[in-house]
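Q: Is it fine to ask for two folds in a single conversation?
A: Yes, each is treated on its own. Send the first.
Q: Here.
A: Result:
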Amino acid sequence: MEKTNTKAVATFIGTLLHGVTVAHMLHLSTKSYARHMALNDLYGELGDLVDTVAEEYQGCFGVIENYNTSFVYNNDPIKYVQGLYDFVEKNRKVMSSESHIQNNIDAICTLLATTLYKLKRFP
């Protein structure tokens, strides 16, 4: 197991955990039933997936510390979820190359991509 950048790891996990809260707020504030349901799926599933990745990482490398608490918020659901997807793809390597960790990050990307499909297809 290779050494990883703990600040980048904390930012990665923290950003995704914050994404759960933002998705929930967007879910509650939309006037579109389709968006309401798509965002419900996102906030309902994302937390467990991120928790799994964080616990796997900590099992391999130790406890993640020093979470950043300043995050970006965008009240446009498509822009927010697209930004989160782009963030994950750009930064996923900070979580190590362990295949089981990367497989669960793939599951996060799948959830984000299917949410984007629902948000774009069913406005």
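Q: Second one now.
A: Result:
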Amino acid sequence: MAAAANLLATLGDLERDSFVALLSKLIAESKYVQNNPPELIPQEDRVVKHVLDVLLPFSTTTGGGPLLVNHVTYHAGRGNLIVEYPGTVPGKILSFVGCHMDVVTANPNDWDFDPFSLSVDGDKLRGRGTTDCLGHVALVTELMRKLGETKPNLKSSVVAVFIANEENSAITGVGVDALVKDGLLNKLKDGPLLVFLSYIYLLHL
């Protein structure tokens, strides 16, 4: 319990301004990540770009931190992102999987506000993808940023997997199915795994 309390103290509270600023950028991309083929093919890399803007400064890619960042793309413009904060004990791992960067198609005429722009009313956030699932993308991005920034001494590695193509099964070989096929998620079986969809599920494989 003391270790958990120390970790929470190190990470601190969610930084509202940083979270809302990132989410605002992601919601602004929601028009371009609507998933309704063949009319609409999402370009998830538009979301990936904003996530990378936040995380790369704390990554081994830039030399600015410990985060291991792997941008995996099977179709042009439709990338997945695997981000790892390394722990100290080999084989110990905690993972967050399924924060997807595509959204269900929205008709702006069905809304009394612009669904492709984040609106903030106190603690109420509205915009296409806020709960399914761009809000989760922003939240987990902020968590990984905090880990990369504060560099806590953790036994378990922490892995976040941001995926493409969750909202439609008409096209395969783009998102998590391709990552699994290539064995890129195999090591996640060694520890607890949180699955983010519209809701959050806890699995222990």
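Q: Anything structural to flag on that second result?
A: Two points. Confidence is low (pLDDT under 50) at residues 199-205. The CA atoms of residues 23 and 91 lie 33 Å apart.
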